[in-house]
Amino acid sequence: MDLTPLHKRVIALDVHQAKITACSVVEHDDGRVEVTKQDFGAFKRDRRALAQWALQIRPEVVVMESTGVYWKSPFAALEAVGITAWVVNARHVKAVPGRKTDMADARWLATLARAGLLRASFIPPLLMRQLRLVARQRQKLVGMCSAEKNRLLKVLVDAGIRINVVVADIHGASARAMVKALIADKLNRTGFRGGLLA
User: Fold this and answer.
1) How far, in Å, CA of 46 to CA of 44, rounded?
2) For the whole model, what pTM was predicted?
């Protein structure tokens, strides 16, 4: 299947856990098409090398499939040098007919990108991605804190101490003060206050 090229300089990345296979397709002014394949590792230095290699090619389009979380680090490395990559849906790529069975994934991606047959997924800007990470981490920590508070309540209930009957908010200041008083009283009665905690 012959595809009419829309872009003259394209890079496609086939991203895996331990390796990134890059394929560049460059159409020169004399009509000659040069295809270059390059493999990169998955370490930070390899991603920097990938970004520098991409800069030398000066691509119009860089594409990669959204493979789990593995696309994120090469995307960030390219973004750091001013190249915005397209992250495309793997299902959409597989739905495009005409692939030759012996053609590598990176070469096929480059062919489709060159013909303008791929759509980029929305990737939020860097600042928004960072804020989203902070918000998700906070949400996770709040959930962990709530779980620990509920575990404390269960321990108290198992011990026959029903703070939830006495106070409206079992996680409020009054309830915390009562728990601290119970702990202090236990320490005083067992003699730990003058020993371990003195």
Assistant:
1) 5
2) 0.69
Q: What are phi and psi of 37, to 5 degrees?
A: -115, 140
**Average pLDDT for runs of 10 along the chain of length 198:** 81 93 93 93 94 96 90 94 91 69 77 89 92 96 92 88 84 87 75 43
Tell me the C-alpha distance between 29 and 53, whole Å: 21
Exposure string of 158-171, with b = 16+ CB inside 10 Å and e = fewer, is eeeeebeeeeeebe
Helices (H), the chain: 44-57, 72-80, 90-95, 105-114, 126-158, 163-166, 173-190
**How far apart, in Å, do the first and last CA atoms of the chain sit?**
82
Distance, in Å, from the CA atom of 116 to the CA atom of 25, rounded to the nearest integer, reads 13
CA distance 83 to 11: 11
Give the residue from 15, 37, 14 showing the smallest Cα distance to 25.
37
Around Cβ 175, how many Cβ atoms within 10 Å? 20
Overall residue count recorded for the chain in this entry: 198
187: number of Cβ within 10 Å:
15
- How does strand 33-40 pair with strand 61-65? unpaired
Q: Are the beta carbons of 88 and 61 closer than 8 angstroms?
A: no
**Phi-psi region for residue 88, left (φ > 0), alpha (ψ -120 to 50) or beta?**
beta
For helices 72-80 and 44-57, give the axis angle rounded to 10 degrees: 50
